[in-house]
Amino acid sequence: MRRTLTRVRRNPARGSGRKPQCAKTRLVERSPKRGLSSRCYRAVSISTVRFLASPICLDCGRAGSRDCRLLTPLMHASVNVSTFRFTPRSICLGWLLATVGLLSAVFAQSAPAGRVVGRIFNPGTGEYVRNAEIRVQGTQNTVYSEEGGVYQLDNVPAGSATLEVAFSGYQTARAAVTVTAGAAVARDFELVSTLPKPAGKDEVVLISKFVVTTEREGNAKAIMEQRRNMNISTSVAADSFGDGSEGNVGEFLKFLPGVDVEYVDGVSRGPRIGGLDQSYVGVTMDGASIASADAFVSYGATLNGSTGGQSRSVGFEQMSITAIESVEISRTSSADMDASSPAGTINMKTRRAFDRKGRRLDWQVSMSANSGAMTTQKGYGLDDLPRYVIRPNYQLDYSDVFLNQRLGIRLGVSKSSVLAQQQYVTHTYNRTPNTADPRPVVLTGITFADGPKLTDRSSVTLTSDFKATPRLVLSFTGMFNAFENSGHTYNLAWTASANGGAAATGRQNVLGDGLTEIRTNGLATNTSRGLTLGGGSAIKLTNTTTITPKFEFKLNALTVDGVFNFSRSKNDYETSSRGTIRVETANINNADFRATRSDPLSAEWTLVQTGGADWSNLASFTNPRTTEEGRFVVTEIYTGETNAKYVLPWRFPTSIKFGGKWAEERRISDNAVPYLVYSYNGPGGGPTGSFANYASPRKFNTDFGRITSLNVANVPTLVDRSALSVVFRERPEYFVNSATVENYYTATIANHRDFLQTVSAAYGMADTKIGKLQLRGGVRWERTETSSKEVDPYTAAEVQAAGYPISTTTRRATTIAGMNYQFLSRPRITRDGDYDNFFPSASLKYSFLPNLQAQFGFAHAISRPPIDALAGVWNINDVTLLITAPNPKLKPERSNNYVARLAYYFEPVGSFTVLVQQTEITDQRITVRGKAADFGFENDPEYAAYDFQSLDNNDSLYRYRSLELSYNQQLSFLPGLLRSTNLNLSYTRNYANQYFPGVTPHKVAGSLGWSIGRLSFRSGLVWQDDTPFTSIFGRFQRRNLKVDFGGAYRMSDRLSFFFQGRNVLNDPNLLYEGDPRRGQPAVLYRYGNFGVSWVAGVKGNF
Question: I want to staple 884 with a disulfide (CB 3.0 to 4.6 A). Which of 312, 560, 875, 1100 is the partner?
Answer without folding.
Answer: 875
